[in-house]
Amino acid sequence: MITPGSDTPDLVIRNGLVGSAAGSVVADVAIAGETIVAVGRGLPPGRAEIDATGKIVVPGGIDSHTHIEQVSAGGLMNADTWESATRAAAFGGTTSVIAFAAQHVGLDLAEVVADYEALAARGAVIDHAFHMIVADPTEAALAQLPALIEKGHSSIKAFMTYDRIRLSDEQLLDVMAVAKDKGAMVCVHAENHGIISWTVKRLLAAGHTAPKHHALSHPRLSETEAFERLIRFSLLLDQPVMIFHVSTAEGAAVIRRWRGEGAKVFAETCPQYLFLTAADLDRPGLEGAKWMCSPPPRAEADQEALWRALALGDLQTVSSDHAPYRFDETGKLAHGPQSTFKQMANGLPGLEARLPLLFDAMISHGRADLDAFVALTATNPARIYNLPNKGALLPGYDADVAIWDPAAQVTFSDETVRDGTGYTPYAGRTVRGWPTTVIRRGAVIVEGGRMRAEAGSGRLMLRAGGPAARGTGRREPELDPARGGAALI
């Protein structure tokens, strides 16, 4: 609470329903400079005020899985710059993103990270951090990882599939061992490469080349097998892992079982698995490519299972996995009008749509309460990825705030998207609830449908791995000297 005689706050948000992961209450939020200084009722006046009566006031969203101004393994630049992507994110109520610094085979990892930092510094309008994609874990790259982690890039992404960037089991264990030593989180795209490769070859040979066949090319068993294998690696090394974009009921069940047995496993899903199905890829010609992502959307039964897993806490976050490619020769159709699904860029845009879709489902249509919405979209990602002073509206935290009008209705359309993709996979869908004012570190950056932030005004978030990235202390017998094993890590 602000006490008499203290400095007048720069901004007071007055009489909104203030949401948190621990409960929601009508209150005021006072901001001085970049920081929240008080939350309570009847706070003293500020130099400026926002009347949030009838509105919902929540922490700015944290999107912890985004591909921004990133070159794919096939050499294709995605559709967004850092400015266009983060502008779209801000309009959707997101004030922090974690994107990727993507190493490809033959690239120097430290140089890759520096290059991506520079791109973000020039363009980002919101705060940002990086996961380091390690696709070429040579001795030199593994030797660079400790210094990069100590600098504050404390999460690593690895792929268990994709021809040009996947790691073998041994390589993945090497990366995880470095992460364990330095206290970093390991995030994984976990699908069985052999199952997918075998299925793709036979689909193409049989003439099944349309985008809709992409949904068949990633059998759901490829997800569960890889989850099981990855979690066993996690147990072997006592290294926590985050499993990205869970898409199936069976995958969620694997995570539930292992978490119940004490494995330190975190997991996320994405809007495309909660709101789309494989049927969305079944379109005339090549139009279904707009809905192609990996893993693919599944079935309505999987949607329900994922919502249940979110409610149970088996999945802790919902990220966009924003991977924007235009539906033209620069993106999805880079290999021409006769492209097979195997040749088409994988990925969907979603930075702006993520929070409105979730708000509509969870709050407007009653799938969950405001506490759960805040936890999944802000508090949990801040905790898991150890983002300092993010994810909650508390004194001392960064003043990242989204003020939502729960009565606003917006219909998604290709003509109104703000990212660089040129289309939205949710065209025609109407949502109720939209962020009308967005504040980043005390500065109003979105108001009245206008962007007020300058390119490059976002800040790089450097961070240690934090508690989520620390092991449990349990050792497998072969790696536990106290039980006759060898101290290999």
Textual characterization of the structure:
It is a single chain. This protein has 489 residues and is an alpha/beta fold. It has helices at residues 82-91, 109-123, 139-151, 169-182, 193-205, 214-217, 220-237, 249-260, 271-275, 300-312, 354-364, 370-384, and strands spanning 11-18, 25-32, 35-40, 48-51, 56-59, 61-63, 94-102, 127-133, 155-159, 185-189, 241-243, 265-269, 317-318, 401-411, 430-440, 443-447, 450-451. Helix 2 (109-123) links the parallel strand 7 and strand 8. The longest helix has 18 residues, at 220-237. The protein starts with 10 loop residues before the first strand and ends in a 38-residue tail after the last strand. Mean pLDDT is 97; it is low at 1-5.
Mean pLDDT: 97
> N- to C-terminal separation?
48 Å
Class derived from helix and strand content? alpha/beta
Question: What integer value in Å does the Rg equal?
Answer: 22 Å
Uncertain ranges: 1-5
Q: How much strand?
A: 15-25%
Please summarize what this structure is.
The chain is an alpha/beta fold and 489 residues long.
List the helices and strands and how they pair.
Elements: E1 11-18, E2 25-32, E3 35-40, E4 48-51, E5 56-59, E6 61-63, H1 82-91, E7 94-102, H2 109-123, E8 127-133, H3 139-151, E9 155-159, H4 169-182, E10 185-189, H5 193-205, H6 214-217, H7 220-237, E11 241-243, H8 249-260, E12 265-269, H9 271-275, H10 300-312, E13 317-318, H11 354-364, H12 370-384, E14 401-411, E15 430-440, E16 443-447, E17 450-451
Parallel strand pairs: 1-4, 1-5, 6-7, 7-8, 8-9, 9-10, 10-11, 11-12, 12-13
Antiparallel strand pairs: 1-2, 2-3, 5-14, 14-15, 15-16, 16-17
Helix pairs in contact: 1-2, 3-4, 7-8, 8-10, 11-12
